[in-house]
Amino acid sequence: MRKLCLLLSASALGSAATPALAQDVLFKPIIDARLRYEMAEQDGPLPLVKDREANAVTMRMRAGGELSKGPFAFLAEAEGTLAIDEDYNSGVNGKALYPIVADPETVEVNRVQLQYRTKPLIVTVGRQRINLDDQRFVGSVAWRQNEQTFDALRVEYMGVKNLKVDVTYAISARTIWGIDGGKFGSFNRPTNIDGDNIFANISYKTQFGTLTGFAYLVDQDEAVPALLRTSSQTYGARFAGAMPITGKVKLSYLASYARQSDYAKNPVDYAADFATAELGLEVAAFKLTAGYELLGSDKDATGIAGGFAFQTPFATLHKFNGWADKFLTTPGAGIQDQYASIAYTVPKIGTAGPLVASFIFHRLSSDRQSIHYGDEYNAQVTLKINKHLSALVKYADYQRKGIASFVGDTDTRKFWAQIDYAL
What we know:
It is built from two helices and 21 strands. It is an all-beta fold. This is Alginate export domain-containing protein.
């Protein structure tokens, strides 16, 4: 993103200007636009409903800018989403007979923050974007048109070699549901979720990878039972890295474990485990990946029938457990996700590139009760057209096995085509 240097001279400001004001002030504009078509088709539980296919054409625009002077910077950004074709259930528009496409119309302040940044220290206060590690626990949900941001104070300290301390105190999460959140009876889809949340990461870089210890304390103030049940305390560790084997072969690896239990006002007494392991092998233009993820279940959880499972309410959930988004809330019996993927990269196609084509398979089952929920097939092609433009086509096919095992457990197919512009 290009930077425009605005020189504020003493003569431009008049006789009241001081030498300090004559220093350079940098302005960085923000323009980020996305046009998307999304189709969602599912086998619904209502056989008398004529049309169970959703077709959404949406346009999202973010615009704003950042002014910086020395170590200080002020950023403001507005975000708006327009439904050009609203034949879909946005989650808050009342069109409950269609499948959900979670991109409601909205106009909002997406970010407004003040930042102090030096080499060893960054302090950010205000409404801001927060992405931690691979976004499994805290992320901005960038896949959706309306981004998730946080009203928070964040401190990042890097004053010790190879060590980073990253601590956030967030009083509100601004959700993807936009200005109409909570309408039409969708009270578990609010515009914002207030609370007292702490996200803490301490990471250390080694020659083999980065070791991270983390603690996430989620304290929801909302009175809606579905939201109160996501108040939790999660403590864990993560190790991720990569190493070359030969000139064209590279091995990558990831392992993580966490333990979660109820916290603050959560009426459910439970404890559950999270674990993941992944290996990747890059061979020239190909990348092969295989992995396993567990979101465990506590069958003895009190206050709720059928058990209660590990939840990650502030994650970028679309990245995990299949792109059909069947597991945004972990079922009471938990999830085991065994997955494998292959990707192929073409660095250049004329003046465009890279082009990346990928395919992913998920086998999704429960942590207990031996339920095979279903299998999912994902495919995607992305192309960087030029410095500012990129395009994507994407497909997800979730095939349920056996009887429906949780709310929304139906055969589901989704297709996307989109183009992005970023200044």
